[in-house]
C-alpha cells in the first residue's frame, strides 16, 4: 500500500495539486474584517493582498484540532500508512497540534502508522518538500524511507526572501516601526532567510535591482548542482518581479525547471504585497 501524504496550505501549492496527487489538504485560516476564512478554500492570496493594500489587518491561525482529528481518524480506520509534512514549527503551532492529535488517535488505533515531519520550511520551500514526498510515495517507497529522505531534503532547503514594504514586517513584530519608516524613505529592501525554521534578517540592500543581483550571488554561494534542480519562486501578487527573477536564474544557472506560484495567504499576511521568495537546495539529494 502506498504511503498517503498529508500537507497544509502553508506549502503554497495550488489546491488542484492535492486532488491530482491524492494528498490530504489541511487549510490554515486567516481572519479578515472579523471573518474567519479557510486558506485556498474560502479565500485566495490575491484577495488578501488587495485587502492589505487597502489597509486591512489580516490575522492568521493554525489548522484546527478537529481538522486533524478528522483526517487522521479516517486514515487510521483504513489502516493507510501516512506521512504529514508540516509547516515550520517555528512559524506556526500547526505541527504541535498535529502531534497532540496524533497521540490521541493512536490511543484508539494503536497500529496506525503516521509520521509527522516538521519541515522547518515555509511557502514553496515547504511545497517542494511536499512534492518530493509525493514523488517518493508514487514510486512505492516505504514510510520510514520517505520520512528519512524528506527530513534530509528539508535540511538542505534554502529560502531567500525580500519584501517590497517593510511596514508589514513591522506590524508582525519582525522589525521596529522606526526601522520600517526609515527603510521606506531610503528604499531599503531587506533580504531574509530561514534558519532552523525561523525567518532571520540577512542583509539590507538599497533598491530592487541590487536585491535581485544579490539573490543570484547568494544562490551561487549556497546552491549546489543548480542546473539539475527545480527552483521555486513565490511572489506576493507581483508576477512581473517573479518573471524577472526567473529570467535571471535561467541565465545564471539553466536549472531543470522553475516553478512559480503565489506566496499564500498565511505567509503573505505577514510579509505583504510585493514579497519575493526563492527556494533551492544547498546540497545534492
TrEMBL record:
Top-level taxon of the source organism: Bacteria
In terms of PROSITE patterns, this protein maps to: DEGV
User: For this protein, what is any one GO molecular function term?
Assistant: lipid binding
**InterPro entries in alphabetical order:** DegV (IPR003797), DegV_C (IPR043168), DegV_domain_contain (IPR050270)
Q: Quick check: keyword DNA-binding in the entry?
A: no
One Pfam family in the UniProt entry? DegV
Asked whether the UniProt record includes Membrane among its keywords, one would answer no
Which PANTHER family does this chain map to?
A: DEGV DOMAIN-CONTAINING PROTEIN DR_1986-RELATED, DEGV DOMAIN-CONTAINING PROTEIN YITS
What's the stated role of this polypeptide?
A: May bind long-chain fatty acids, such as palmitate, and may play a role in lipid transport or fatty acid metabolism.
- What NCBIfam families does the entry give? DegV (TIGR00762)
Protein name (database record): DegV family protein
Amino acid at each position: 500500500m502506498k504511503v498517503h501524504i498529508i500537507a497544509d496550505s502553508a506549502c503554497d501549492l495550488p489546491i488542484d495539486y492535492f486532488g491530482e496527487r491524492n494528498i490530504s489538504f489541511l487549510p490554515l485560516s486567516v481572519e479578515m474584517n472579523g471573518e474567519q476564512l479557510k486558506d485556498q478554500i474560502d479565500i485566495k492570496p490575491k484577495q488578501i493582498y488587495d485587502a492589505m493594500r487597502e489597509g486591512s489587518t489580516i490575522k492568521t491561525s493554525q489548522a484546527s484540532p478537529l481538522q486533524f482529528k478528522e483526517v487522521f481518524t479516517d486514515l487510521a480506520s483504513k489502516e493507510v500508512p501516512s506521512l504529514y509534512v508540516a509547516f515550520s514549527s517555528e512559524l506556526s503551532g500547526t505541527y504541535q497540534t498535529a502531534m497532540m492529535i496524533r497521540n490521541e488517535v493512536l490511543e484508539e488505533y494503536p497500529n496506525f502508522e503516521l509520521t509527522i515531519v516538521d519541515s522547518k520550511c515555509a511557502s514553496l520551500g515547504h511545497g517542494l518538500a511536499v512534492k518530493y514526498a509525493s514523488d517518493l510515495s508514487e514510486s512505492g517507497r516505504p514510510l520510514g524511507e520517505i520520512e528519512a529522505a524528506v527530513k534530509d531534503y528539508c535540511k538542505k532547503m534554502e529560502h531567500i526572501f525580500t519584501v517590497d514594504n517593510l511596514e508589514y514586517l513591522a506590524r508582525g513584530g519582525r522589525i521596529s516601526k522606526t526601522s520600517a519608516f526609515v527603510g521606506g524613505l531610503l528604499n531599503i529592501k531587506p533580504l531574509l532567510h530561514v534558519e532552523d525554521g525561523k525567518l532571520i534578517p540577512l542583509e539590507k540592500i538599497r533598491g530592487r535591482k541590487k536585491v535581485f543581483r544579490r539573490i543570484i550571488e547568494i544562490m551561487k554561494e549556497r546552491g549546489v548542482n543548480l542546473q539539475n534542480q527545480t527552483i521555486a519562486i513565490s511572489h506576493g501578487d507581483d508576477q512581473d518581479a517573479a518573471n524577472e527573477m526567473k529570467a535571471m536564474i535561467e541565465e545564471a544557472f539553466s536549472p531543470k525547471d522553475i516553478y512559480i506560484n503565489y506566496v499564500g495567504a498565511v505567509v503573505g499576511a505577514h510579509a505583504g504585497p510585493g514579497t519575493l521568495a526563492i527556494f533551492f537546495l544547498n546540497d545534492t539529494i
